[in-house]
Amino acid sequence: MFGAEIPIIQGPMLGASTPAMAIAASTAGAIGAIGAAGLAPAALGQTIGEIREAVGDKPFIVNLFVLDPAAPDPAEVSRAMAALAPWRAELGLPEQAIPNKWAEDFAAQFAVLVETAPPVASFTFGILSAEQCARLKARGTRVVGTATTLAEARAWAAIGADAICASGFESGGHRGTFLRPVEESLVGTLSLVSAVRAQLGLPVIAAGGIADGASIAAVLALGAEAAQMGTAFLLAEESAVSAPWRAALAGQDCDSSRLTRAFSGRYARGIENRFMREMAGAEIPVYPIQNALTQELRAAAARAGRADMLSLWAGQGVHALRPGRTADLITAYWAQARATLADTAARFA
Ligand SMILES: Cc1cc2nc3c(=O)[nH]c(=O)nc-3n(C[C@H](O)[C@H](O)[C@H](O)COP(=O)(O)O)c2cc1C
Prior knowledge:
- The chain is α/β, with parallel strands linked by helices.
- It has twelve helices and eleven strands.
- The radius of gyration is 19 Å and the shape is globular.
């Protein structure tokens, strides 16, 4: 896919993927991606330049969140800050100040994408306009839209996307859902990939629960052009995952994760912990408000080694996690996928 030799995409992961990881994945023959939603426009341009210089003409993906400017209700912000105050006190943090900005400005980030024209751009949390999609395509950038339902995939097809990233509910990190409430958008990877492929005629990238070579083989057999893996790279040497988060991933299995809004205001899948449980009844403002309000808390929890207050994003495939260099993980996953495809063909020949 996109000219890569190996149909594996190292998923974009804000807070976990790094330029070094993307460079390693693309150089190894797969497709690296950078979760760039948290980058200010200048840093975004710089990062794209850095990756391009390192990988030459190999494909890589730059990923952004499609967000409208935040317009929080001050009373709601005060209530959210009050709910977080005891957690901050537990970590010895001072009283919370209102953040300078809630999120990076998507319009400004998008302008950088058009200017720098990376080989592939992928989007989540929302959808581009047909005009925005056409602007990127006119610059030679392939556009991938993240969909968590068939209706979202259709919406991306209608605005001219080149491919759909079909993200099942197994996926780690945030749900990309943008049309219906999350509770109505929990389609599994196998069903979503096969439905999107059958109905839309666009290349499909399968994402969610693809944790090893055998599951890569499964989605390729289903007709996906590539498997996007996020959780499977969390323990990579190049990942930005903090020490307590890494430690918390050990020994987990497919039952360990939950969907929660507690950390960011948008549903995301991670290992269940005390913050998730105790904040379950609290009033939580929508993304990016809660995300910005918990940022300092999460950073302090990571420094203090407090996994009970930290977002421990991981998907249902967490049991298969292994450490190693990104390039070695890709080589191992792809070798196992090919062996699985050959074994399966032989078993049922
Ligand atoms: C820690 C973490 C952060 C993520 N951040 C992003 C992101 O910034 N943008 C995005 O489109 N997907 C993001 N994802 C989703 C991954 O790119 C990928 O689609 C997903 O992890 C696939 O499911 P899996 O975790 O079961 O492999 C994130 C996933 C994780 C685990």
